[in-house]
Amino acid sequence: MYAAQLTILPDGRLMLGTQELSRRESDAIRSNLQYADGSLPAHVGVQDLPNGQKQIWRIEDGVTAATTWIPEQEQAMTDAEKHRVDLLIEREIEPDPDDPRPEQARLKERHIHVWAIAGSLTPDGRNRAAVADAYDLSSDAVLAAQWYYLRHRDRFDARLRTNDFQ
Amino acid sequence: MAIVYLDEDVAMALAQILASYGHHVTDAHAERQEEQPDPAQLLFAAQSNRTLLAYNGRDHLLLHQAWSIWTHQWGVPDRHAGIILVPHVRPDQIAQLAREIDDILTRNDTELENALYYLPTLGGEWMRNPRRLNR
After folding, report:
1. Is the ipTM reported for this complex over the cut 0.90?
2. Which of A111, A113, A162 sits opposite B58 (nearest CB)?
């Protein structure tokens, strides 16, 4: 358990100590830890959990406002579990024939780009069912998109920034 | 009411709500256009006199500017039926987004022809033909 400084980068993402966070991680922290006036605590408490997740909370008011950290889930997965994710991605996702970059990959189902699904998910990914309904997709397709996003997070975060949604 | 054509990456749920407001809504999947790149999507929308609605802002702003400048330069009379760029939202925000789109589509002073309307954020102000998108 330790304290880390929370700073805002010019592009709006956050930096935790010396670690630059992705847009999604930054959004997770903002949605959970910012004060009513929209400001963020200057320092936060951090707990590294054994499964690779972090818990973060506000120090100033003693509130254990543990944020839902985007888990580095694969760090805690067995090889068999990782293989199942590989198969899921292979079954559900394909490259865009016009642009083979990972951030332009799309779902085989309805040919919707993975970035569109990733941008619709909450930071903790718990709204998968709602996203599946909104896009008329199977839950497996949305889950595959979420995993694929996590494996190429920096590329997707950069791609989503070009949409300029804020 | 407007005739709106949704880009392939826009949620179906948005189409359903806009249709419930009385707009005629179709999308790239229904029109079998999902394999087409963005420039072809805009051309399809223009040729079928539909307003294109999309998330991916910068790509479509560039397309709109290229369309406007090049057709003018070449003396080509073709005009598109409008482009609407909206923020990419989560499912629980789609209803609000639909209300804001309906608002711009039904305003008396909205002139969609050959124009691009951009909503930077939910609850924000619509911008017409911005030179660049806010960040």
Report:
1. no
2. A162
